[in-house]
Automatic annotation (TrEMBL):
Residues 24-95 form the HD domain. InterPro entries: HD/PDEase_dom, HD_domain, HDIG_dom. It comes from Sinanaerobacter chloroacetimidivorans. This is HD domain-containing protein.
Amino acid sequence: MANKHPSREECFRLLEAYHTPGHVIRHCVEVTDTALKIAGALNNHGYHLNLDLLQAAGLIHDIARVEEKHWEVGARIASELGYDQEAEMIRVHMFYNTDIHHDNWKEIDILCLSDRMVKEDQYVGLETRMSYVLEKFKDNPEVFQRLQERIKENREFIRQIEEKIGASIDSLM
């Protein structure tokens, strides 16, 4: 049986029920809207990304943002509610690496890229968002280096998406 995904309205009820702060909800909405625009453009060019899954996972990906290891807590919440696909996306979203050596992209690829292009509740693009993150880890060489590699991979991922859709991601926003 196919996994049923919570509707937009149900996601908002869940965010409220789990006391997700308003600024985090606004972030989740912007990440979701960004992801849906990118996925929609890809779907218009032959991809088959599940927009219902992407919307649900995007809206609740930070449901437990105020908790320590929020990705694990959020995944447990989604799993307990029977939203297993969303739970897996929430579980990995903080440390996920997109494989840029193929173009068989999945919803998690689009969600994570979108999360890396939204600062608070605004689409700002990869460079602006990640420079903010790099600044936070400038005194931790190991993490800083890992983030720089991730940024490089995401630049390439963006280039590949833009090549496929024949437009810049910025122009979609």
